[in-house]
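Can you make up a polypeptide sequence alongside its tokenized fold?
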Amino acid sequence: MGFYKTTQKAALDAWDNEIHQRAELKEKALEFAKKFGGKPVFCGDATDFRFHGLSFDAAPLIGHSSLWTLSRSQNGYTREPRGKSRIPRERRAEHLQLLDAWDEGRPTERISREPYWKALGLEWGMLILCGITHFRVGDVIYFKTSVMTPTY
């Protein structure tokens, strides 16, 4: 396990860029979630960061509750509109309106983490196997990994 630190401008810029992109995505997702009365849920891994779905403390503001998926551990306790199957005939028009509202403004972009890993001289595939812990203090990025890295 190696401990490293870097002050390289490319790595700091990649970190700042990713943080800026995440803030923009979170802002879009909050605006989208307000429309339905929910809270945005995000998902991230070694390769990207993205909007995952909505969680609700109460019933959604748009569409009958039966038109939404159930929140379960398998879907990260989020809800989204059901697919087109198994929708009762009397609710189909409402369901189509819900699908249109869902598609309008839903954040679909994925924020790639690859530029950041490349700036650190790492490959994300190895990070999945070996792991990494990283943080930033001021203009220094510290990280710990068992991946062989360039000399810092």
User: Anything to note?
Assistant: Strands lie at 2-6, 39-44, 48-55, 110-112, 132-137, 140-145.
